[in-house]
Amino acid sequence: MTDTRIRLFREGDWDEVVALEERAYATSGLSEGREALRSRHRASPSTCFVLEHSGGFGGYLLALPYPLFRCPDLSLAEEDPARGRNAGSNLHTHDLAIAERARGRGLARRMQRHLEETGRAARYRTLSLVAVRGSEALWSRLGYRARPEIGLPASYGAEAVYMAKPLEPAATDPAAASCPRAEVG
Predict the structure, then answer these.
(1) Which residues, listed in sequence order, are joined to residue 98 by a DSSP beta bridge?
(2) Can you give the three-state secondary structure of 65-122, one letter per residue?
(3) How far apart are CA 185 and CA 183, in angstroms?
(4) 166 has which bridge partners?
(5) Radius of gyration from C-alpha coordinates of the chain
(6) What pLDDT, on a 0 to 100 scale, did the predictor assign at position 169?
(7) What is the pLDDT of residues 99-134, one digit of tens each?
(8) Cross-strand pairs, 48
(9) DSSP 3-state assignment of 59?
(10) pLDDT of residue 19
């Protein structure tokens, strides 16, 4: 897939990111708007990525450190970007969206793998997310476990489910033997 590249956000990406986010979530009432999205990015710019595919914008992934079993409220922007740097050992996938023209090519999975590699390198122990619009089965196939007992902000709607997975250290990581497996349930 030489025509596909994952990179960090640039200032010029925001119009396409906001437009894709609105197309993906507005009809379900889950769209956050530009300022909330930018606040997630400000909380952790090194874990937010843009997908370039076939010479154009192909999607994005926003992830930020967040305490395990908690998640951002869609109706609120992140108030303190420094809070994310002290959120512990969990990296929360806040949003992953693939542009319509790039769907069906396994690019969401590729972006998720990229996030896992980034998380391992930064020594996060778990990944979490909130599955919306019936995506729980997809995330389960990628190793996430549903945690329906975890309460979510009302902004996610009644069908949303919190999910988490341990982020195993890389097999070649010499610290792997001394790093206990994270408990996500």
Answers:
(1) 59
(2) ECCCCCCCCCCCCCCCHHHHHCCCCEEEEEEEEECHHHCCCCHHHHHHHHHHHHHHHC
(3) 6
(4) 126
(5) 16
(6) 72
(7) 999 999 999 999 999 999 999 999 999 999 999 999
(8) 62
(9) strand
(10) 98
> What one-letter code names the amino acid at 127?
L
Containing 63, the helix (H) or strand (E) segment is: strand 56-65
**Of 116, 117, 104, 4, nearest in space to 51 by CA:** 4
pLDDT digits (tens, 9 = 90+) for 136-173: 999 999 999 999 999 999 999 999 999 999 998 766 55
Instruction: Give the residue carrying structure tokens 């890389």.
Output: 170
Residue in this structure with the two tokens 């902004």, named with its chain if needed: 155
List the 126-131 sheet strands across, edge first: 4-8, 48-53, 56-65, 90-98, 126-131, 161-166, 145-146
**Angle at the Cα of 110 from the Cα atoms of 108 and 113, rounded to 5 degrees:** 110
Q: Do the bridges between strand 126-131 and strand 161-166 make them parallel or antiparallel, or are there none, so unpaired?
A: antiparallel
* Among 92, 97, 108, 86, residue whose Cα is nearest residue 150: 92
